[in-house]
Amino acid sequence: MTVAEAIPPVPILELAGLHKSFGSLKVLDGIDLAVRPRELVFVIGPSGSGKSTLLRCCNRLEEPDSGAVIVDGADIMRPGTDLNAVRQKIGMVFQSFNLYPHMTALGNVTLALCKVQGLDREAAELRGRAALAQVGLSDKEASYPNALSGGQQQRVGIARALALGPKIVLFDEPTSALDPELVGSVLAVMRELKAAGMTMVVVSHELAFARAAADRVVFMEGGRIVEQGPPAAIFGNPREARTQAFVSRLSQGHG
Amino acid sequence: MDNGLERLVFAFFNAEIAAEWAPKILEGVWVTILVSLAVVATGLALGLALAALRAYRFRAVNAAIVAFVDILRALPPLVVIIILFFAFPYLDLPMSAFTATWLSLSLVLAAFAEEIWWAGILAVPRGQWEAARSTGLGFGATLGYVVLPQAVRMTVPPLVNRVIAVTKGTALGSVVALSEIVSQASSAASLAGNPTPLTLGAAAYLAIFVPVVVLGRWIETRFAWKR
């Protein structure tokens, strides 16, 4: 746990005893996880292991059945929580981008700045342009999503999350819907974000990226965290047989 | 044959009669246009409001909306006009022919438009809601800025069809003596003893609705966008 010691100990996001069922199916079965500032936590696990649900519970896009979700010191499960305010602090990037097709790239990035943060158009566009510059898409601000490649669309998605000045960004399989040759541009942006000190939780199958950029890898199965640790330990020398089996299967699949 | 054609022209394309009765038909044209515009504005606005309200999924409210929509889609518009015009006076709610026609057709259009818009709202992918909500937009803001603009664009073609179908129903106002085109034309035809005014009426409908159809097609292409 040498990496963890180097990172300030107060978590920016903390999940405690998180449970979630869909009908009789237990999707999250007692999740405890703390993410410290500047940390990149990488979540892996087989399909149906609850990774995406875990992520979506962090900003209550999915409603947990029980447990605590503590963001920046406050339990957002508490009644009376202003979710829309909390969500400003938690950026989210989606597998299928989910850009608004009727708005330009800049429009996508500035909508919440105008309508939620109450910035006037000029200020919002200033911030929006800065966010687009951060993902290398300054020249695409007037483009509609349908005129952008998948990689560009996902980078606009990242810019949309960054523009709000979040304290943490959640990535839900950000490269799974991309053609292989477009994956690199998105991962490059994520790597830069990490270098700039952004706190991130990433659900993904990009193991090479995890090895290179993650501070901690969390392996989930059956709605529980089976094992977690630095990437070298999880990928090189996992303690649990299930982790080992999953990692070797995934590595083979990705050549 | 020649004789038959002459008689047809005399009966239906009689220039003298047309010139004499054109002003009366023209009065009807204005009434038809006025009722139509009022129906389109009221019907579409009410339909949109109901569809948006339905998105909030309050159970009792939605049951009421569905009941309203189902009843008005099932009833012939003519029946609605007759009920409003002849029955409501008994409730001390007398209404003019204009009001009865406008209100009836507006309610019918609202019912159809609500269904079309609701289908559009449902067709917007869930990811759009999630993306907007994840940036802190509330339910109403997400509906207004993200979902409805997409729903409205998707539903322009069926809406245009429905708008045309319902506004043509202004002709039904003739049963309550609304002085619109059909009413003016048929009374002119009986006064003149010649059906040429009906031809004029048909021409008037073409003059009004062909541009609407063309405009509708333009709107459809204007608002279509690749997804």
Structure description:
The complex is a heterodimer of chains A (255) and B (227). Chain A is an alpha/beta fold. Chain A has a domain at 101-165. Helix content of chain A is 39%, strand content 24%. Chain A has 10 helices and 10 strands. Chain A has helices at 2-6, 51-57, 83-89, 105-115, 121-134, 150-163, 180-195, 207-213, 231-236, 241-253; strands spanning 13-22, 25-35, 40-44, 66-71, 74-75, 90-93, 168-172, 199-203, 216-221, 224-229. Chain A has a 6-stranded mixed sheet, sandwiched between helices. A 4-stranded antiparallel sheet of chain A has the order 2-1-4-5, covered by helices on one side. The two termini of chain A are 29 Å apart. Chain B is mainly α and 227 residues long. Chain B has one domain: MetI-like fold, CATH 1.10.3720. Chain B has helices at residues 2-12, 15-55, 59-74, 77-87, 97-123, 126-134, 139-154, 156-168, 181-192, 196-223. In chain B, helix 2 (15-55) crosses helix 5. The longest helix of chain B has 41 residues, at 15-55. The radius of gyration of chain B is 22 Å and the shape is elongated. At the A-B interface, helix 3, strand 6, helix 4 and helix 6 of A face helix 6 and helix 7 of B.
